[in-house]
Amino acid sequence: MVLITQITIAQNHKRSYANRVVNFPENTATPLTAQERSFIDEAYAHEAQRLIYNNPTMLKSIKHILRNRVIIYQATSNVEYQKAELLSSVPVFTACNDELERDIVFNLNTFNPLKYSFQFFSKKSFLFRVDGTNFMIMIKSQFN
Predict the structure, then answer these.
(1) Domain of 128?
(2) FRET label pair with 16: which of 98, 107, 108, 117, CA 20 to 30 Å apart?
């Protein structure tokens, strides 16, 4: 009975993703900026060419993340501030670059979201608070 339930759950999970389409805005067709390229190179290191630059779909997804889906703003209410997870709870993404380190000081202009293991390809959106600040980082669902 457990196996049948697991198969049914897996089939339903596949169906729920199959019915969703990622709509890429027009801005994902434009070339990478120097900063975006540096973010990719920092996070993916020697794997950047193979995983991102040589893969048009993944490159478009990364552009969508950097340009449209990571929103950084200052909290305007205590409720919003208190319900968010701390950025320090998100592991650093070291799968391709084991030398990556967590930012010691948060800088809005140089924050690289690709350095962190955010759930970028989830169906849900997520909200994080930068430790010791009132800055919030929203990771919007790719299906919004």
Answers:
(1) 33-139
(2) 117
SS3 of 40-53: the string is HHHHHHHHHHHHHH
| Three-state DSSP class for residue 61 | helix
What are 37-96's pLDDT values in tens digits? 999 999 999 999 999 999 999 999 999 999 999 999 999 888 777 889 999 999 999 999
**Residue 115 included in any domain:** yes
Strand order in the sheet with 126-129: 70-74, 135-139, 126-129, 85-86
Total number of domains constituting the chain = 1
- Would you say residue 1 lies in a domain? no
